C-alpha cells in the first residue's frame, strides 16, 4: 500500500520519460496515497499510472493480498465486531463460541476459544479505507469483516462459521509484530 514515505521523485533521462509516468510538479501524489501496486516493483523503478490500483477499483483487494494469501469475509455484529472499532489494517484474533454437551447428559454449555491469532483486517463491509472527518477517525457499525488468511485457514474459518458464532478480539497496535509472527507462524503453517 502506497504511503507518503514509500514514494519519491528521481531524475530520469528526458528521452525515457513516458506519458504514463508521474512527473514532479505535474502529479499530485497525495491522491495516490492508499493505492496498491498491481505487481512487485523494484526500489528505484519508475511507477506508471497503470501500476496503481485505488480503493474501490476493480482488483484492489486482490492486489492488497500478500502472495499466497486469500480474502475471506465473515459476518459480525456490534457485539462480535468490537463495537465498530476495527478498521482496515488492524490485526485481530478470531474466537469461536459454540454449544457443547454438559457432563453426564447435563445442560448444554457455551464454550469460547481463540482459534486464530494476529489476522489482518482487509476491509469492513465493502470499505478498505478508514474514514477521517475533521481529523478524527469515524467509527461506524459494519456487518462484515474481510480478513487476509492462508487457504487452509480460510477453510477452517468456513467450518467454524457452521459450528458456532465468530467474534473478533482487537489486538494492540503496540504488540511486537515480529515476535507475534514468530510465535504463530509455525502453528498457522501446521493448521
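Sequence proposed for the structure above (191 residues):
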Amino acid at each position: 500500500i502506497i504511503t507518503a514515505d514509500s514514494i519519491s521523485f528521481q531524475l530520469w533521462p528526458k528521452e525515457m520519460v513516458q506519458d504514463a509516468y508521474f512527473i514532479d510538479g505535474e502529479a499530485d501524489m497525495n491522491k495516490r496515497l492508499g493505492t496498491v501496486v498491481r505487481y512487485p516493483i523494484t526500489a528505484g523503478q519508475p511507477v506508471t499510472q497503470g501500476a496503481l490500483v485505488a480503493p474501490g477499483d476493480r482488483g484492489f483487494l486482490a492486489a492488497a493480498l500478500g502472495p499466497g494469501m486469500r480474502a475471506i469475509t465473515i459476518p459480525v455484529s456490534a457485539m462480535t465486531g468490537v463495537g465498530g472499532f476495527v478498521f482496515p489494517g488492524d490485526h485481530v484474533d478470531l474466537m469461536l463460541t459454540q454449544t457443547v454437551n454438559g457432563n453426564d447428559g447435563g445442560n448444554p454449555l457455551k464454550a469460547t476459544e481463540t482459534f486464530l491469532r494476529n489476522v489482518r483486517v482487509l476491509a469492513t463491509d465493502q470499505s478498505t479505507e478508514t474514514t477521517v472527518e475533521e481529523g478524527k477517525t469515524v467509527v461506524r457499525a459494519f456487518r462484515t469483516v474481510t480478513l487476509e488468511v492462508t487457504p487452509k485457514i480460510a477453510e477452517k474459518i468456513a467450518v467454524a462459521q457452521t459450528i458456532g458464532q465468530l467474534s473478533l478480539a482487537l489486538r494492540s497496535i503496540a504488540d511486537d509484530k515480529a515476535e507475534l509472527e514468530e510465535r504463530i507462524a509455525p502453528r498457522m503453517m501446521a493448521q
